[in-house]
Fold each of these.
Amino acid sequence: MLHYRTIPVTAFRQNCSLLWDDASMEGVLIDPGGEVDRLLAEAARLGVALRQIWLTHAHIDHAGGVAELVARAGLPVIGPHPDDQFLIDGLAMQAAAFGFPPAGAFVPERWLHDGDTVALGEHRFAVRHCPGHTPGHVVFHNAEMNRAFVGDVLFAGSVGRTDFPRGDPQALIDSIVGRLWPMGEQTVFVPGHGPESSFGQERRSNPFVRGT
Ligand SMILES: [Zn+2]
Ligand SMILES: [Zn+2]
């Protein structure tokens, strides 16, 4: 059975998720944006052997800890979509611009595309490409646990910013309507910042997407 724990990291309180399978006690980190010591300690405390890093997109608060994790734990990086390459190349500049600890680039072992699948043990997650906040943003959906890890596409009561380089407001709404809503109203999502919600709740009450 799958479990997860959300660990807010960095000054931006980005929701890094530690996801694991209790059959094998193997796990992945989704969006380890920083505070690598804390993430490794939490995995050790829970008895989880980390196997992979999954990335929704390459903004500094989501990907700033990746190079350090690769160096220290040897974990392969899965994602994001190749259209975020320019953000990976610019991680050192992003770190300086936002006052983050130094961060470096990395090379994903596997890029992700719409319709791909990633797996943790026998548990499979559907990958959807959701551009708009960044061009290479992806989300991970697991029907069995009724969860979607959506990064900065959608938040409880808001949507991702589109005023960063290569942001696209119409693409963002198209991603939400065309690729998140079909996962079902009951689906609970873990956003990159702030509390969880469900897609149904957001369709009813989120002013940015109400009625879509
Ligand atoms: Zn972002
Ligand atoms: Zn973020």
Amino acid sequence: MKIVVLGGTGMIGSKVIANLTERGHEAVAASPDTGVNTVTGEGVADALRGADVVVDVTNSPSWDEQAVRHFFVTSTGNQLAAEEAGGVGHHVVLSIVGADQEPESGYLRAKVAQENVVKESGRPYTIVRSTQFCEFVRSIAEAGAEGDIIRLTNAYFQPIAADDVARLLTEAIVAPPANATIEIGGPEAIPLDELARRTLAHDGDPRTVVTDPEAPYFGAKVGERALTPGADARLGEVRFDDWLANNVPPK
Ligand SMILES: NC(=O)c1ccc[n+]([C@@H]2O[C@H](COP(=O)([O-])OP(=O)(O)OC[C@H]3O[C@@H](n4cnc5c(N)ncnc54)[C@H](OP(=O)(O)O)[C@@H]3O)[C@@H](O)[C@H]2O)c1
């Protein structure tokens, strides 16, 4: 199959391109670097010509509420219009587990708006909602830093390694359209404060993690299980401790 990966130069996109190529597909990465801008529409129709499947793993350069909503809604609309014109048979988009559970977060609201553009388009689709990537736990924790302490919620996260995201996303890309939302996640649910303590211990970082159930994530208080997937989720294999030990040199 010819599969165009919009955002195919990014962290998940580049791994998906490698997986699809290894399986013998014609996988094409498209992004502003390759002359394709899904927000302005530049190069989109040309890039999608002859594609069987289009994968959207783009991300907004700005997370400002207005900007991120504009990015995901406009980008997705442009993609789907080009897919309709070109007869593309499957649109796959990567979204976030629990996005609809956190209405105070502008970024997550924008991801829900992106999903709605897909669902309302009438085009064949699969929405793959993932939990937070292991690769982002450090920066999520840093958002709670206040001097020598890091204040974080003890809501459960279920971090998944980017390699597992790409592997499970690849399965959805080569399958027929689900015309539904499927969930993927890491193998174990661990409270965010505990994930941060493990990361700090790995780094030899002397700061203290203070547990605060009211501490915000993406600007909003998060429900205890709002960001963990349902029982039907497909799970990755890499445990957070193994990911830390094998992928992250201590700071
Ligand atoms: N972080 C998490 O824990 C998490 C969890 C679940 C789902 N997700 C979702 O996963 C997706 C991919 O994340 P990622 O970390 O792989 O992203 P990333 O590494 O930041 O890559 C983003 C990609 O989007 C491209 N891009 C940016 N603006 C574009 C535009 N106007 N037109 C076309 N392409 C554009 C970038 O191209 P350039 O490099 O050329 O700028 C890059 O290839 C996002 O949609 C995110 O919401 C993230």
